[in-house]
Prior knowledge:
The complex is a heterodimer of chains A (120) and B (359).
Chain A: E1 4-6, H1 11-20, E2 24-32, E3 36-45, E4 48-57, E5 61-63, H2 72-83, E6 86-88
Parallel strand pairs in A: 1-4, 5-6
Antiparallel strand pairs in A: 2-3, 3-4
Chain B: E1 3-8, E2 20-26, E3 29-36, H1 44-50, H2 56-60, H3 68-83, H4 89-117, H5 121-142, E4 151-152, E5 155-156, H6 162-188, H7 190-196, H8 204-209, H9 214-218, H10 249-272, E6 289-298, E7 301-310, E8 317-321, H11 323-334, H12 343-349, H13 354-358
Antiparallel strand pairs in B: 1-2, 2-3, 4-5, 6-7, 7-8
Helix pairs in contact in B: 3-4, 4-5, 4-10, 4-12, 5-6, 6-10, 7-10
Amino acid sequence: MEEIVVGKGDLGLTVQRLLDENCRLATAVCLDQGDHFEVLYYFHRGLDLVPLRVKVGKDEELPSISRLHLPAALIENEMKEFFGIKITDIAIDFQGRMLLAENSPRQPMCKNNSQTATEG
Amino acid sequence: MSKITFPFGPQHPVLPEAIQLSLTCEDEKVVEVLPVIGYMHRGIEKAAERNPYVNNVFLCERICGICSFIHALSYCQLMEELMQVEVPPRARYLRVVWSELSRMHSHLLWLGLLADSFGFESLFMQCWRARETVLDALEMTTGQRVVQSSCVIGGVRRDINADQARQLREMLAGVKAQIDAVLPVFQKDYTIKARTVGKGVLPKDQAWKLGAVGPTLRASGWAWDCRSLGYAAYGELGFEPVVENDGDSYARTMVRARELVQSYELVLRALDALPEGPLAAKIKGVPPKGEAIMRTEQPRGELFEYARGNGTPRLERLKIRTPTFANIPALLAMLPGCEIADVPVIVLSIDPCIACLER
Lengths: 120, 359
Protein backbone atom coordinates (compact mmCIF):
# COMPACT_ATOMS: atom_id res chain seq x y z
CA MET A 1 0.00 0.00 0.00
CA GLU A 2 1.92 3.01 -1.26
CA GLU A 3 0.97 6.18 0.56
CA ILE A 4 0.54 9.53 -1.20
CA VAL A 5 1.46 12.59 0.86
CA VAL A 6 0.29 15.98 -0.39
CA GLY A 7 -0.12 19.53 0.86
CA LYS A 8 -3.64 20.83 1.29
CA GLY A 9 -3.25 22.98 -1.83
CA ASP A 10 -2.76 19.87 -3.97
CA LEU A 11 -5.55 17.87 -2.36
CA GLY A 12 -8.25 18.62 -4.95
CA LEU A 13 -6.04 17.83 -7.94
CA THR A 14 -4.79 14.59 -6.39
CA VAL A 15 -8.30 13.47 -5.50
CA GLN A 16 -9.49 14.26 -9.03
CA ARG A 17 -6.63 12.21 -10.47
CA LEU A 18 -7.57 9.25 -8.25
CA LEU A 19 -11.24 9.56 -9.24
CA ASP A 20 -10.20 9.64 -12.91
CA GLU A 21 -8.39 6.35 -12.27
CA ASN A 22 -11.74 4.90 -11.08
CA CYS A 23 -10.83 5.06 -7.40
CA ARG A 24 -13.47 6.02 -4.83
CA LEU A 25 -13.30 7.17 -1.22
CA ALA A 26 -13.54 4.36 1.35
CA THR A 27 -13.25 6.65 4.36
CA ALA A 28 -11.10 9.33 5.95
CA VAL A 29 -9.45 9.32 9.36
CA CYS A 30 -8.66 12.51 11.27
CA LEU A 31 -5.79 12.49 13.77
CA ASP A 32 -5.13 15.20 16.34
CA GLN A 33 -1.34 15.65 16.36
CA GLY A 34 -1.18 18.44 18.93
CA ASP A 35 -0.32 21.48 16.84
CA HIS A 36 -1.89 20.18 13.63
CA PHE A 37 -4.33 17.67 12.22
CA GLU A 38 -3.48 14.83 9.91
CA VAL A 39 -6.21 13.59 7.61
CA LEU A 40 -5.79 10.18 6.04
CA TYR A 41 -8.07 9.56 3.08
CA TYR A 42 -8.35 5.92 2.01
CA PHE A 43 -9.44 5.27 -1.57
CA HIS A 44 -10.62 1.97 -3.00
CA ARG A 45 -8.81 0.93 -6.14
CA GLY A 46 -10.64 -2.30 -6.91
CA LEU A 47 -10.26 -4.27 -3.69
CA ASP A 48 -6.99 -2.50 -2.85
CA LEU A 49 -6.58 0.70 -0.87
CA VAL A 50 -4.69 3.88 -1.69
CA PRO A 51 -3.91 6.07 1.36
CA LEU A 52 -3.60 9.83 0.88
CA ARG A 53 -2.21 11.86 3.79
CA VAL A 54 -2.64 15.61 4.30
CA LYS A 55 -1.39 17.76 7.16
CA VAL A 56 -3.29 20.88 8.11
CA GLY A 57 -2.66 23.42 10.86
CA LYS A 58 -5.33 23.76 13.52
CA ASP A 59 -6.17 27.31 12.45
CA GLU A 60 -6.02 26.54 8.74
CA GLU A 61 -8.88 25.64 6.42
CA LEU A 62 -9.03 22.37 4.51
CA PRO A 63 -11.04 22.38 1.28
CA SER A 64 -13.78 19.79 1.11
CA ILE A 65 -13.49 17.10 -1.54
CA SER A 66 -17.26 16.48 -1.49
CA ARG A 67 -17.84 18.71 -4.54
CA LEU A 68 -15.64 16.26 -6.45
CA HIS A 69 -16.94 13.14 -4.71
CA LEU A 70 -20.27 13.38 -2.86
CA PRO A 71 -19.73 10.38 -0.51
CA ALA A 72 -17.03 12.44 1.21
CA ALA A 73 -19.71 14.76 2.64
CA LEU A 74 -20.79 12.58 5.55
CA ILE A 75 -17.26 11.75 6.69
CA GLU A 76 -16.17 15.38 6.38
CA ASN A 77 -19.12 16.46 8.53
CA GLU A 78 -18.11 13.88 11.12
CA MET A 79 -14.48 15.07 11.19
CA LYS A 80 -15.62 18.69 11.49
CA GLU A 81 -17.92 17.86 14.39
CA PHE A 82 -15.59 15.57 16.31
CA PHE A 83 -12.31 17.47 15.83
CA GLY A 84 -13.30 21.03 14.92
CA ILE A 85 -11.20 20.81 11.77
CA LYS A 86 -12.15 23.70 9.47
CA ILE A 87 -13.37 21.91 6.36
CA THR A 88 -14.85 24.42 3.93
CA ASP A 89 -17.57 24.12 1.29
CA ILE A 90 -18.96 20.69 2.20
CA ALA A 91 -21.66 19.71 -0.33
CA ILE A 92 -24.15 18.84 2.44
CA ASP A 93 -23.14 20.76 5.56
CA PHE A 94 -24.93 19.70 8.76
CA GLN A 95 -23.39 22.69 10.62
CA GLY A 96 -22.03 20.53 13.43
CA ARG A 97 -25.32 18.71 14.05
CA MET A 98 -24.93 15.46 12.13
CA LEU A 99 -24.18 13.14 15.03
CA LEU A 100 -23.86 15.52 17.96
CA ALA A 101 -26.77 17.25 19.63
CA GLU A 102 -26.99 20.86 20.71
CA ASN A 103 -25.90 20.07 24.28
CA SER A 104 -23.24 17.50 23.33
CA PRO A 105 -19.56 18.08 24.12
CA ARG A 106 -17.85 20.19 21.45
CA GLN A 107 -15.08 18.53 19.41
CA PRO A 108 -14.99 15.50 21.69
CA MET A 109 -12.18 13.73 19.84
CA CYS A 110 -9.63 16.54 20.26
CA LYS A 111 -6.78 15.56 22.58
CA ASN A 112 -6.16 18.89 24.23
CA ASN A 113 -9.74 19.65 25.02
CA SER A 114 -11.08 19.04 28.41
CA GLN A 115 -13.75 18.14 26.44
CA THR A 116 -16.12 16.22 27.50
CA ALA A 117 -17.59 19.17 29.24
CA THR A 118 -20.54 20.66 27.50
CA GLU A 119 -20.64 24.25 26.38
CA GLY A 120 -23.03 26.77 27.74
CA MET B 1 -46.64 21.61 -8.87
CA SER B 2 -45.99 22.64 -5.28
CA LYS B 3 -43.54 20.65 -3.20
CA ILE B 4 -44.08 19.39 0.29
CA THR B 5 -41.33 18.29 2.71
CA PHE B 6 -42.11 15.87 5.51
CA PRO B 7 -40.20 13.53 7.83
CA PHE B 8 -40.00 9.78 7.26
CA GLY B 9 -39.01 8.47 10.68
CA PRO B 10 -37.34 8.45 13.16
CA GLN B 11 -40.23 6.25 14.32
CA HIS B 12 -41.74 4.29 11.45
CA PRO B 13 -43.14 0.73 11.34
CA VAL B 14 -40.54 -0.33 8.78
CA LEU B 15 -37.55 1.09 10.66
CA PRO B 16 -36.11 -1.19 13.33
CA GLU B 17 -33.96 1.71 14.56
CA ALA B 18 -34.23 5.48 14.66
CA ILE B 19 -33.27 7.45 11.56
CA GLN B 20 -35.11 10.22 9.80
CA LEU B 21 -35.23 10.96 6.10
CA SER B 22 -36.49 14.38 5.16
CA LEU B 23 -38.49 13.68 1.97
CA THR B 24 -39.43 16.43 -0.46
CA CYS B 25 -42.26 15.30 -2.73
CA GLU B 26 -44.24 16.53 -5.68
CA ASP B 27 -47.62 14.85 -5.41
CA GLU B 28 -46.72 11.17 -4.64
CA LYS B 29 -43.24 11.35 -6.16
CA VAL B 30 -40.09 11.84 -4.11
CA VAL B 31 -37.86 14.55 -5.59
CA GLU B 32 -35.26 15.10 -2.86
CA VAL B 33 -34.02 13.33 0.25
CA LEU B 34 -31.82 14.43 3.15
CA PRO B 35 -30.77 12.19 6.02
CA VAL B 36 -31.24 13.36 9.61
CA ILE B 37 -29.11 11.19 11.87
CA GLY B 38 -27.71 11.37 15.39
CA TYR B 39 -30.43 9.60 17.37
CA MET B 40 -28.17 6.69 18.35
CA HIS B 41 -24.64 8.07 18.56
CA ARG B 42 -22.83 6.58 21.56
CA GLY B 43 -19.27 7.88 21.20
CA ILE B 44 -17.72 4.45 20.80
CA GLU B 45 -14.55 5.71 19.10
CA LYS B 46 -13.96 8.07 22.03
CA ALA B 47 -14.67 5.34 24.55
CA ALA B 48 -12.14 3.10 22.75
CA GLU B 49 -9.38 5.63 23.50
CA ARG B 50 -10.10 5.38 27.23
CA ASN B 51 -10.16 1.60 27.54
CA PRO B 52 -7.11 -0.65 27.64
CA TYR B 53 -6.87 -2.00 24.09
CA VAL B 54 -7.71 -5.55 25.20
CA ASN B 55 -11.08 -4.41 26.61
CA ASN B 56 -12.10 -2.81 23.33
CA VAL B 57 -13.04 -6.24 21.98
CA PHE B 58 -16.07 -6.13 24.27
CA LEU B 59 -16.82 -2.53 23.34
CA CYS B 60 -16.61 -3.17 19.60
CA GLU B 61 -18.88 -6.21 19.69
CA ARG B 62 -21.52 -4.00 21.27
CA ILE B 63 -21.59 -1.56 18.35
CA CYS B 64 -24.39 -3.66 16.92
CA GLY B 65 -26.31 -6.68 18.14
CA ILE B 66 -26.71 -8.25 14.71
CA CYS B 67 -23.14 -8.41 13.45
CA SER B 68 -21.50 -8.30 16.87
CA PHE B 69 -19.17 -11.23 16.23
CA ILE B 70 -17.73 -9.64 13.07
CA HIS B 71 -17.20 -6.33 14.89
CA ALA B 72 -15.15 -8.21 17.49
CA LEU B 73 -13.33 -10.18 14.79
CA SER B 74 -12.40 -7.01 12.89
CA TYR B 75 -11.00 -5.35 15.98
CA CYS B 76 -9.06 -8.49 16.97
CA GLN B 77 -7.60 -8.81 13.46
CA LEU B 78 -6.70 -5.11 13.56
CA MET B 79 -4.78 -5.55 16.81
CA GLU B 80 -3.16 -8.75 15.49
CA GLU B 81 -2.01 -6.82 12.41
CA LEU B 82 -0.63 -4.03 14.60
CA MET B 83 1.16 -6.43 16.95
CA GLN B 84 2.22 -8.98 14.30
CA VAL B 85 0.39 -11.85 15.99
CA GLU B 86 -0.08 -15.08 14.06
CA VAL B 87 -3.47 -16.66 14.74
CA PRO B 88 -3.57 -20.48 14.96
CA PRO B 89 -5.34 -22.21 12.03
CA ARG B 90 -8.10 -23.73 14.16
CA ALA B 91 -9.04 -20.29 15.46
CA ARG B 92 -9.14 -18.89 11.91
CA TYR B 93 -11.59 -21.61 10.84
CA LEU B 94 -13.76 -21.16 13.94
CA ARG B 95 -13.87 -17.44 13.18
CA VAL B 96 -15.32 -18.27 9.75
CA VAL B 97 -17.95 -20.56 11.32
CA TRP B 98 -19.18 -17.84 13.70
CA SER B 99 -18.92 -15.09 11.06
CA GLU B 100 -21.10 -17.04 8.65
CA LEU B 101 -23.61 -17.98 11.33
CA SER B 102 -23.84 -14.25 12.09
CA ARG B 103 -24.41 -13.51 8.41
CA MET B 104 -27.14 -16.18 8.25
CA HIS B 105 -29.03 -14.79 11.20
CA SER B 106 -28.63 -11.22 9.92
CA HIS B 107 -29.90 -12.08 6.42
CA LEU B 108 -32.81 -14.11 7.85
CA LEU B 109 -33.71 -11.22 10.11
CA TRP B 110 -33.63 -8.88 7.11
CA LEU B 111 -35.71 -11.18 4.88
CA GLY B 112 -38.30 -11.32 7.68
CA LEU B 113 -38.35 -7.52 8.00
CA LEU B 114 -38.73 -7.18 4.23
CA ALA B 115 -41.66 -9.62 4.24
CA ASP B 116 -43.24 -7.70 7.12
CA SER B 117 -42.76 -4.38 5.27
CA PHE B 118 -45.25 -5.42 2.61
CA GLY B 119 -47.57 -7.25 4.97
CA PHE B 120 -46.48 -10.88 4.55
CA GLU B 121 -46.65 -11.69 8.27
CA SER B 122 -46.54 -15.45 7.87
CA LEU B 123 -43.43 -15.23 5.69
CA PHE B 124 -41.88 -12.88 8.26
CA MET B 125 -42.48 -15.48 10.98
CA GLN B 126 -41.10 -18.32 8.84
CA CYS B 127 -37.85 -16.38 8.31
CA TRP B 128 -37.52 -15.54 11.97
CA ARG B 129 -38.27 -19.12 12.98
CA ALA B 130 -35.30 -20.26 10.89
CA ARG B 131 -33.24 -17.46 12.45
CA GLU B 132 -34.07 -18.74 15.94
CA THR B 133 -32.32 -22.02 15.13
CA VAL B 134 -29.22 -20.11 13.98
CA LEU B 135 -29.26 -18.19 17.27
CA ASP B 136 -29.61 -21.52 19.09
CA ALA B 137 -26.55 -22.75 17.17
CA LEU B 138 -24.60 -19.65 18.26
CA GLU B 139 -25.69 -20.20 21.84
CA MET B 140 -24.70 -23.86 21.75
CA THR B 141 -21.21 -23.11 20.38
CA THR B 142 -20.38 -19.83 22.15
CA GLY B 143 -22.70 -19.70 25.14
CA GLN B 144 -24.37 -16.49 23.91
CA ARG B 145 -27.09 -15.79 21.38
CA VAL B 146 -26.41 -12.11 20.56
CA VAL B 147 -23.05 -10.87 21.86
CA GLN B 148 -20.92 -13.99 21.56
CA SER B 149 -17.65 -12.76 23.14
CA SER B 150 -15.88 -15.75 21.61
CA CYS B 151 -13.23 -13.77 19.72
CA VAL B 152 -10.07 -12.61 21.49
CA ILE B 153 -6.90 -10.93 20.29
CA GLY B 154 -4.77 -13.84 19.09
CA GLY B 155 -7.56 -16.33 18.42
CA VAL B 156 -10.82 -17.50 19.96
CA ARG B 157 -12.00 -18.19 23.48
CA ARG B 158 -14.11 -21.28 22.78
CA ASP B 159 -13.80 -24.46 20.79
CA ILE B 160 -16.35 -26.52 18.85
CA ASN B 161 -15.82 -30.15 19.76
CA ALA B 162 -16.82 -33.12 17.62
CA ASP B 163 -20.17 -33.59 19.36
CA GLN B 164 -21.05 -29.89 19.01
CA ALA B 165 -19.99 -30.01 15.34
CA ARG B 166 -22.38 -32.92 14.76
CA GLN B 167 -25.21 -31.08 16.51
CA LEU B 168 -24.43 -27.93 14.55
CA ARG B 169 -24.68 -29.82 11.25
CA GLU B 170 -28.05 -31.24 12.29
CA MET B 171 -29.37 -27.81 13.30
CA LEU B 172 -28.15 -26.26 10.07
CA ALA B 173 -29.75 -29.05 8.02
CA GLY B 174 -33.06 -28.01 9.60
CA VAL B 175 -32.35 -24.34 8.82
CA LYS B 176 -31.47 -25.24 5.23
CA ALA B 177 -34.82 -27.03 4.81
CA GLN B 178 -36.61 -23.93 6.12
CA ILE B 179 -34.58 -21.66 3.83
CA ASP B 180 -35.42 -23.89 0.85
CA ALA B 181 -39.09 -23.48 1.74
CA VAL B 182 -39.11 -19.67 1.98
CA LEU B 183 -36.65 -18.59 -0.72
CA PRO B 184 -38.90 -19.58 -3.67
CA VAL B 185 -41.53 -17.22 -2.28
CA PHE B 186 -39.05 -14.32 -2.37
CA GLN B 187 -37.92 -15.36 -5.83
CA LYS B 188 -41.29 -15.94 -7.51
CA ASP B 189 -44.18 -14.36 -5.63
CA TYR B 190 -46.08 -11.86 -7.77
CA THR B 191 -46.61 -9.30 -5.00
CA ILE B 192 -43.00 -9.40 -3.81
CA LYS B 193 -41.79 -8.87 -7.37
CA ALA B 194 -44.31 -6.05 -7.87
CA ARG B 195 -42.95 -4.32 -4.76
CA THR B 196 -39.23 -4.81 -5.50
CA VAL B 197 -38.50 -5.24 -9.24
CA GLY B 198 -37.40 -1.93 -10.73
CA LYS B 199 -37.66 -0.15 -7.36
CA GLY B 200 -34.71 1.88 -6.11
CA VAL B 201 -32.48 1.11 -9.08
CA LEU B 202 -28.77 1.75 -8.49
CA PRO B 203 -26.88 1.52 -11.82
CA LYS B 204 -23.50 -0.19 -11.82
CA ASP B 205 -21.32 2.90 -12.35
CA GLN B 206 -23.27 4.91 -9.79
CA ALA B 207 -23.03 2.13 -7.20
CA TRP B 208 -19.25 2.32 -7.39
CA LYS B 209 -18.98 6.11 -7.49
CA LEU B 210 -21.34 6.56 -4.53
CA GLY B 211 -19.25 4.25 -2.37
CA ALA B 212 -21.81 1.44 -1.97
CA VAL B 213 -20.60 -1.76 -0.31
CA GLY B 214 -21.86 -5.26 0.45
CA PRO B 215 -25.06 -6.67 -1.09
CA THR B 216 -26.01 -3.11 -2.18
CA LEU B 217 -22.91 -3.01 -4.41
CA ARG B 218 -22.97 -6.67 -5.46
CA ALA B 219 -26.61 -6.37 -6.60
CA SER B 220 -25.41 -3.75 -9.08
CA GLY B 221 -23.02 -6.12 -10.80
CA TRP B 222 -19.82 -5.79 -8.75
CA ALA B 223 -18.02 -8.97 -7.59
CA TRP B 224 -16.58 -7.02 -4.66
CA ASP B 225 -16.49 -8.68 -1.25
CA CYS B 226 -13.83 -8.31 1.45
CA ARG B 227 -13.92 -12.06 2.05
CA SER B 228 -12.05 -12.26 -1.28
CA LEU B 229 -9.08 -10.73 0.60
CA GLY B 230 -8.76 -14.14 2.27
CA TYR B 231 -8.78 -13.04 5.92
CA ALA B 232 -9.44 -15.66 8.65
CA ALA B 233 -9.74 -18.90 6.60
CA TYR B 234 -11.72 -17.52 3.62
CA GLY B 235 -8.67 -17.83 1.39
CA GLU B 236 -8.68 -21.60 1.97
CA LEU B 237 -12.41 -22.23 1.54
CA GLY B 238 -12.96 -21.41 -2.13
CA PHE B 239 -14.99 -18.26 -1.59
CA GLU B 240 -16.62 -16.51 -4.59
CA PRO B 241 -18.82 -13.37 -4.23
CA VAL B 242 -22.54 -13.57 -5.05
CA VAL B 243 -23.45 -11.07 -7.78
CA GLU B 244 -26.69 -9.87 -9.35
CA ASN B 245 -26.91 -7.30 -12.13
CA ASP B 246 -30.20 -5.41 -12.07
CA GLY B 247 -29.36 -3.04 -9.19
CA ASP B 248 -32.94 -2.86 -7.88
CA SER B 249 -34.52 -3.89 -4.57
CA TYR B 250 -35.27 -7.34 -5.99
CA ALA B 251 -31.60 -7.86 -6.95
CA ARG B 252 -30.50 -6.84 -3.44
CA THR B 253 -32.99 -9.36 -2.02
CA MET B 254 -31.64 -12.09 -4.30
CA VAL B 255 -28.02 -11.38 -3.31
CA ARG B 256 -28.91 -11.88 0.36
CA ALA B 257 -31.03 -14.94 -0.42
CA ARG B 258 -28.16 -16.59 -2.30
CA GLU B 259 -25.66 -15.54 0.36
CA LEU B 260 -27.74 -17.37 2.95
CA VAL B 261 -27.14 -20.63 1.13
CA GLN B 262 -23.50 -19.69 0.55
CA SER B 263 -22.97 -19.02 4.27
CA TYR B 264 -24.53 -22.39 5.12
CA GLU B 265 -22.07 -24.07 2.74
CA LEU B 266 -19.11 -22.09 4.10
CA VAL B 267 -19.94 -23.19 7.68
CA LEU B 268 -20.02 -26.83 6.57
CA ARG B 269 -16.78 -26.48 4.61
CA ALA B 270 -15.06 -24.82 7.58
CA LEU B 271 -16.26 -27.61 9.91
CA ASP B 272 -15.08 -30.28 7.43
CA ALA B 273 -11.64 -28.70 7.20
CA LEU B 274 -11.33 -27.66 10.87
CA PRO B 275 -7.65 -28.23 11.72
CA GLU B 276 -6.46 -29.52 15.09
CA GLY B 277 -4.38 -27.24 17.28
CA PRO B 278 -4.45 -24.41 19.80
CA LEU B 279 -7.25 -21.85 19.98
CA ALA B 280 -5.20 -18.72 20.55
CA ALA B 281 -1.69 -17.35 20.33
CA LYS B 282 -0.12 -15.85 23.43
CA ILE B 283 0.18 -12.08 23.28
CA LYS B 284 3.65 -10.96 24.29
CA GLY B 285 5.67 -7.80 24.16
CA VAL B 286 4.73 -4.14 24.25
CA PRO B 287 1.21 -2.86 23.62
CA PRO B 288 0.29 -1.88 20.04
CA LYS B 289 2.43 0.76 18.38
CA GLY B 290 2.10 2.27 14.91
CA GLU B 291 -0.74 2.33 12.41
CA ALA B 292 -2.82 -0.45 10.89
CA ILE B 293 -6.06 -0.91 9.02
CA MET B 294 -8.38 -3.89 8.79
CA ARG B 295 -11.30 -4.69 6.52
CA THR B 296 -13.84 -7.46 6.92
CA GLU B 297 -17.16 -8.26 5.26
CA GLN B 298 -20.15 -7.80 7.50
CA PRO B 299 -23.66 -8.83 6.41
CA ARG B 300 -24.15 -5.26 5.17
CA GLY B 301 -20.75 -4.86 3.53
CA GLU B 302 -17.21 -3.72 4.17
CA LEU B 303 -16.28 -2.79 7.72
CA PHE B 304 -13.18 -0.58 7.76
CA GLU B 305 -11.16 -0.07 10.93
CA TYR B 306 -8.06 2.03 11.53
CA ALA B 307 -6.00 2.05 14.71
CA ARG B 308 -3.01 4.01 15.87
CA GLY B 309 -1.15 2.84 18.94
CA ASN B 310 1.63 4.59 20.85
CA GLY B 311 3.06 1.68 22.81
CA THR B 312 0.82 2.29 25.83
CA PRO B 313 -2.17 0.10 26.77
CA ARG B 314 -4.52 2.74 25.35
CA LEU B 315 -4.94 3.41 21.65
CA GLU B 316 -4.35 6.91 20.36
CA ARG B 317 -7.12 6.52 17.78
CA LEU B 318 -9.63 3.90 16.66
CA LYS B 319 -11.69 4.74 13.59
CA ILE B 320 -14.60 2.54 12.58
CA ARG B 321 -16.37 3.04 9.23
CA THR B 322 -19.38 0.77 9.06
CA PRO B 323 -21.11 -0.46 5.89
CA THR B 324 -24.34 1.46 6.51
CA PHE B 325 -22.32 4.69 6.69
CA ALA B 326 -20.94 3.86 3.24
CA ASN B 327 -24.37 2.97 1.83
CA ILE B 328 -26.19 6.19 2.81
CA PRO B 329 -25.12 8.18 -0.32
CA ALA B 330 -26.35 5.29 -2.49
CA LEU B 331 -29.69 5.29 -0.66
CA LEU B 332 -30.04 9.04 -1.24
CA ALA B 333 -29.57 8.39 -4.97
CA MET B 334 -32.09 5.52 -5.09
CA LEU B 335 -35.05 7.43 -3.66
CA PRO B 336 -35.61 10.47 -5.95
CA GLY B 337 -38.15 9.54 -8.61
CA CYS B 338 -39.83 6.79 -6.60
CA GLU B 339 -43.38 6.82 -5.23
CA ILE B 340 -43.85 7.55 -1.51
CA ALA B 341 -45.31 4.05 -1.07
CA ASP B 342 -42.03 2.51 -2.25
CA VAL B 343 -39.83 4.43 0.19
CA PRO B 344 -40.05 1.86 3.04
CA VAL B 345 -39.02 -1.07 0.85
CA ILE B 346 -36.20 0.88 -0.82
CA VAL B 347 -34.86 2.07 2.55
CA LEU B 348 -34.98 -1.50 3.84
CA SER B 349 -33.26 -2.79 0.71
CA ILE B 350 -29.87 -1.48 1.88
CA ASP B 351 -30.45 -3.31 5.20
CA PRO B 352 -29.69 -0.20 7.25
CA CYS B 353 -28.13 -0.68 10.67
CA ILE B 354 -28.33 2.64 12.46
CA ALA B 355 -26.49 1.44 15.58
CA CYS B 356 -23.54 0.68 13.28
CA LEU B 357 -23.96 3.88 11.26
CA GLU B 358 -23.71 6.16 14.30
CA ARG B 359 -21.53 4.10 16.63
